[in-house]
Write a structure and sequence with these properties.
The structure is a homodimer. By secondary structure, chain A is α+β, with helices and mostly antiparallel strands. Chain A is built from 14 helices and 18 strands. Among the domains of chain A are: 103 residues, Nucleic acid-binding proteins (OB fold (Dihydrolipoamide Acetyltransferase, E2P), Beta Barrel); 37 residues, no CATH class; 102 residues, Bira Bifunctional Protein, Domain 2 (BirA Bifunctional Protein, domain 2), CATH 3.30.930. Chains A and B meet through helix 3, helix 8, helix 9, strand 7 and strand 9 of A and helix 3, helix 8, helix 9, strand 7 and strand 9 of B.
């Protein structure tokens, strides 16, 4: 709501969420598309009339039949992200999106070409025998986000390039548009990739930059996911799943795929989506919990699943979603989560915390570029975590809070605010933002939770915390033979 | 239906599918459970009266409080699958299920203990100072599938052991029942693990063995998945996903998780499950197709997904399921699937077939035990496949069929029978059961399929075949800028 004035100022970037507005937006796009088609037909004709260009083969739009796989093995493309100073003087062919286009008079134009989050500056300069003035005009009139094939020579400029990720330039010989974008898109990628800090800084300098709002981003998701930060987020999401799996597979777990269409609800606590299954009532699984437990009863020993979880909840916090991807683990424990694992030197509890440590380590090591891309738009500090994860008992947590003047019920649950406070205290005392709290009060855990042998008010269960927020929870239970 | 007489002969192993029968079954189990509890209480009391056993600590049922995590670090367990001749003379502790129990007089009993598909024979012999006659009696009266802790010394018998996977025996000193199974289970694991061939062979020798039917297996899935073959199948399923992922990640793909709750149907062809999404109509995704394509438009380049797919189909073939786990791949191709990939020496088409070759190779190498376990119950021949996968054009396939006297429409689709026939012909001519058929007639592929440049009746699309059956299909298409 605070940006409603901006929304009016930049109507194409700030559509309303309502259905009516969405329809209007669609109609507008359709109108633009038609106008574009009409104008390109006209301008094409006009240009031909204007002047015949002997260098016309070096640029233009590639007609569909020419894209149709005529060359079975063609000239190889170089990825934009792979362009570097070592390739100076080399002739390259790249394909990417025209992210920004800028004409300098009639003889020169710059195009920033982006491929998977990496960008390179391409320079088109009028030159006898290769680049005509019409070609410069064609390039200057490209629609942003169009896909272009660029052929040219790689040069290294004397001063650093600000507007692109690669520190080289392509001196363009040929440029063809492979797929033309609408002349006006609801999201400008440069705007969508901007950080709050940049917008604030510009504002202080008297310049008002466009802020792309969350609703616009969600309505035009296919455009928004092209930003370097979003490319990074999806890359990291993929990597998180990969590390999670590799770690668990190496510890003797197998991956299962439990049914999502089930006859009853899987957990009591959360609302369920109901549907008709060929005349019989069915539900969408709110958790793989029961099927994981069946796998353990079925002698699988150690299982995990990465899959969708459905909850028909009406909550509006960032911790509640109707559909999300759950990372679920279930394992047989012989006596206690402090017992030694299969290989005699890893405690079962270590599997839990080492899983996370492996994930943090691996993301820091293999996703540097992704983390940097995210950090440019959404600055963050690296996570503080210990090599040997801190395990605190619930009682110790309660005591730490008490010492800090926060009195809570030692047999009750922690609320969000108290969790955040405890996170602060743990960071101050132990220097970690990642820790595990165990021996929760029995009364606040599910019915199947195993009580502690030395105190029946406590239970063999634990929660995993990151930056004062619950990351996951676990419960030990009694499993039965059949 | 052909086994209905058997069902009567072995009522506990062959329950009917009807609800009434299922209820009856449940009631019966409940009755048995009560009887068991009563009898064990009585017999326990009777035994005490009978004779006080000074060795009573060496056996018996472990009461729940004793299981409750008292020892934080206890004696380590050895996995049954790890027991081998090299450990002769060593004292071991194993936990597993009592799969088969056999008493030999009053002084000796054998128990086959199973853990995750591996089995070991345990021998309990009356012995002064350690094993009492009451202990032998206790062991002989164990319910099958109960979980037991067995302590004993490992010996290597002079002749091979037939009834267990491990070629060693445990001379038992202590045996405790950790979790007691019902005295009669609807599935006997030895019966459930039996191959058709064994049953036939026994029949010819005049012995009628129990055949556990598919409906019984599905009704008591948690028992059936304990068979070595099913343990193997789930292990391989896990590994298939793993290889698929590792191969694609190494080729620059990222893993995505697309929404399963969507506003409209994802593909025209198949029926859809509808549900109410907070007052608005929603569907379960029949395919990640559209979201994969949006990922490509969103500049991800190469994506894949392993996740549930929902189809409200009424077909009753083994190739149709209402819910299954789909392995989906989508990639940007610059011109043709014959073009060179990112690294300049792998053709895009190679990614497709090498994905499968990597999977076959890796399963053969890393899942030997699982494949053997499956083969014992369901014998099969190893798959014949080539290092360099055979790619045939649709036209070549039609010609091969024609030469073999099978006339089909060169612009039509192949039916299941013709596909099987072509599989045979390919195996005879090329010695492979795995091949790819490409350049399908355009008319029978989805609307977005790219026609071939040299023949508009054909298309840039292919299907992957294994043993004459369709394994997957692919379509090249034109993607747009926005």
């Amino acid at each position: 709501m605070t940006t409603s004035s901006e929304a009016d100022a930049h109507p194409s970037e700030q559509p309303k969420l309502s259905k009516k507005a969405a329809k209007k937006e669609e109609a507008k796009l359709e109108k633009l598309r038609r106008r574009l088609e009409a104008s390109s037909a006209v301008s094409g004709a006009a240009e031909e009339e204007e002047e015949e260009d002997p260098l016309a083969a070096n640029y233009g739009e590639v007609p569909l039949p020419d894209l149709q796989s005529k060359e079975e093995v063609g000239e190889p493309y170089t990825e934009v992200g792979a362009l570097g100073e070592g390739m100076q003087g080399r002739s390259v062919l790249v394909r990417g999106r025209a992210q920004a286009i800028r004409a300098v008079g009639k003889k020169m134009a710059f195009v920033v070409v982006r491929e998977r989050g990496f960008t390179v500056q391409c320079v088109v300069t009028e030159q006898e025998g290769s680049v005509s003035r019409q070609m410069v005009k064609f390039v200057a009139s490209l629609n942003r986000e169009s896909i272009v094939d660029v052929r040219g020579t790689l040069t290294v400029p004397s001063s650093p390039i600000k507007g692109a990720s690669q520190q080289v330039e392509i001196q363009v010989h040929k440029l063809h548009c492979v797929s033309k974008a609408f002349p006006t898109l609801p999201i400008n990628l440069e705007g969508a990739a901007r950080s709050e800090a940049e917008i604030e800084k510009a504002l202080q300098a008297g310049e008002q930059l466009v802020r792309v709002n969350q609703d616009t981003r969600l309505n035009f998701r296919v455009l928004d996911i092209r930003t370097p930060a979003n490319q990074g987020i999806f890359g990291i999401q993929s990597q998180v799943g990969n590390i999670f799996r590799q770690f668990l597979l190496s510890e003797g777990f197998i991956e299962i795929h439990t049914p999502k269409l089930i006859a009853g609800s899987s957990e009591g606590g959360s609302a369920v989506f109901k549907l008709d299954y060929k005349g019989r009532p069915a539900c969408l699984a709110q958790s793989p919990q029961l099927h994981k437990q069946m796998s353990i009863c079925g002698d699988f020993g150690r299982v995990f699943e990465i899959g969708p979880v459905f909850r028909a909840e009406d909550s509006y916090t960032h911790r509640h979603l109707c559909e999300f991807t759950g990372l679920d683990v279930e394992m047989e424990i012989k006596k206690h989560y402090f017992e030694m694992g299969l290989d005699f030197y890893v405690q079962v509890m270590d599997i839990v915390d080492q899983l996370f440590v492996a994930m943090f380590d691996s993301l820091n090591a293999s996703c540097k570029k992704e983390l940097e891309a995210i950090g440019r738009q959404y600055p963050f500090e690296p996570l503080k975590y210990l090599r040997k994860t801190l395990w605190l008992t619930f009682q110790e947590g309660v005591q730490m809070l008490k010492d800090a003047g926060v009195e809570i019920d030692p047999l009750g649950d922690l609320n969000t605010e108290v969790e955040r406070k405890l996170g602060q205290l743990v960071l101050e005392k132990y220097g970690t933002e990642f820790y595990i709290l165990h021996r929760y009060p029995l009364a606040i855990r599910p019915f199947y939770t195993m009580p502690c042998y030395d105190n029946r008010a406590s239970s063999n269960s634990f929660d995993v915390f990151i930056r004062g927020k619950l990351l996951g929870h676990s419960t030990c239970q009694q499993t039965f033979s059949d």
